[in-house]
Amino acid sequence: RGGARAQRGGKMASTAAGKQRIPKVAKVKNKAPAEVQITAEQLLREAKERELELLPPPPQQKITDVEELNDYKLRKRKTFEDNIRKNRTVISNWIKYAQWEESLKEIQRARSIYERALDVDYRNVTLWLKYAEMEMKNRQVNHARNIWDRAITTLPRVNQFWYKYTYMEEMLGNVAGSRQVFERWMEWQPEEQAWHSYINFELRYKEVDRARSIYERYILFISLTKAVLVLVHPDVKNWIKYARFEEKHSYFAHARKVYERAVEFFGEEHMDEHLYVAFAKFEENQKEFERVRVIYKYALDRIPKQDAQNLFKNYTIFEKKFGDRRGIEDIIVSKRRFQYEEEVKANPHNYDAWFDYLRLVESDADAETVREVYERAIANVPPIQEKRHWKRYIYLWINYALYEELEAKAKRTRQVYQACLELLPHKKFTFAKMWLLYAQFEIRQKNLPLARRALGTSIGKCPKNKLFKGYIELELQLREFDRCRKLYEKFLEFAPENCTSWIKFAELETILGDIDRARAIYELAIGQPRLDMPEVLWKSYIDFEIEQEEYEKTRNLYRRLLQRTQHVKVWISFAQFELSAGREERLPRCRQIYEEANKAMRSCEEKEERVMLLESWRSFEEEFGTDATKERIDKLMPEKIKKRRKLQAEDGSDAGWEEYYDYIFPEDTANQPNLKLLAMAKLWKKQQQESEAAAMDPDKDIDESQT
Fold it and tell me: Keyword Zinc-finger: yes or no (predicted)?
């Protein structure tokens, strides 16, 4: 800081002393930082406040004669030439030089400077613009035209040159010359705005036919010099502008022709909703409502749904304005149809989408359309022959057949059923529902032999329980009992473990009054080595004998059943049977059954079943027994105690303890010590409670002792 001040002071002294010798600056020995620091920002602020760097403006010079003017021009030109010589590529120096010469009315010198500059950089757009503007400013029209011609020839893609050139010719009233420039411009196939400028130029002079020809060249460019057809701007928006141009000038037939040409030009591969919306609105303005509907429907049938949102919206608005309820419903149906078409195209095996689609077309479309959609749907056969993949698919065939039967003739329905049954891989799996529906259809057509043949074929190819049951039910309705017997025999040969079939067969014989055959069927059934529901079969056999009032045979059946199983429900059912037999000895018999059951159940590990038996016995004694029998059954009832046992996890580790209830029966001699221990525990607990009560009330103890 001290050094800076010393230097500042030295400069001031040298300024004041003029050419005096500047004293030598002493070296700063103390290089420690000063207590108060000065930043660069503060130094700059002080310099600005003191205006140390501001120079006074140069004095104004007044030129009084020609010599001084020539001298000024010479010095100024020398300055410009020096600047250009230093850097020829800085175009701003050339432009300033030329503008200075122009200000002196030295037009020829200015032209020379611009020409020299163009030799340096002829691609500079600003240079051409300044050059041409100078000529126009000084009313040098031919020179300006020459410059514009050179500019558009050298740089034909610079649109600004063309705009300026055509504008100059139009301002001069040279319409033909401006049109000629536009034609030269159009040969280069410029951007859209250039074409619109040309069209607006012709419209300003009421040249509608010329504007129409320009539009034709705009969308389908035809070179006038080369006679070549080139697509320049064949966009939809340009076709629409062309049509609106015709409509604006009341050439409605021409406008319609333009729209039709546009639809034909783009075809079905490059359809755009904006074109059809504009076409429909044009026809709507012409009150051609039927044509509007045709346009909308044609577009909606061909444009994908995701690209036709605006089209749907405008069609809906149109129908609300000019249509009826049916038309609005058609729009909604069309929209949903598009949606379903997209879904089934994305995934042909999405059968739920096919169901929704078919439901839609059935409610609205004609029979041929519905049939076509059904054929498309059933053509998507599941690729894997596994039944779980076919469960949804088979309902397409079922719905198709029902539709044909209800809406069309029976011949097609039969063909549908037969085609479906031929398609199914019966060796791997089948659908009994399809066979049964086909048989029921033939019966409705009063063609019983074909129905029997179909069901017989199904049983021969792929026997199933459902097929047998359906065939038997059909023959029962027809009262063909001999056929039913044969079918039951075949059914039981196919599935001898099916208890329901045995029961139904026996019930049929019972209904027909052949009791011996029914009993024989039951005997055959219980003699089978493997049954799916033996308890149901035995119960049905027992109920059958009870209905026939064959009580001895029923008892024998119970005894035979008890030889196979000692289940508590069998004993209880046996006892209930004896109770309901209706004879005088029924109570002793019932009590005897309970006694036998109790003895048999002593070795049973499931104590809950033994408790169930005793509770059933107690209910019987409470209703029909004496005091002695009631007291005896009460003594047989077990004690319910709570126990704990240790749990183990799957890996063998300790999982804690759990509580459970156990039963101790007085009859079991092995459990006598447990009962004695339990009684002693109860007595000890009672004594503990009495001692605690005495400790809580000492006065009562004194009174009791005195007493």
Answer: no
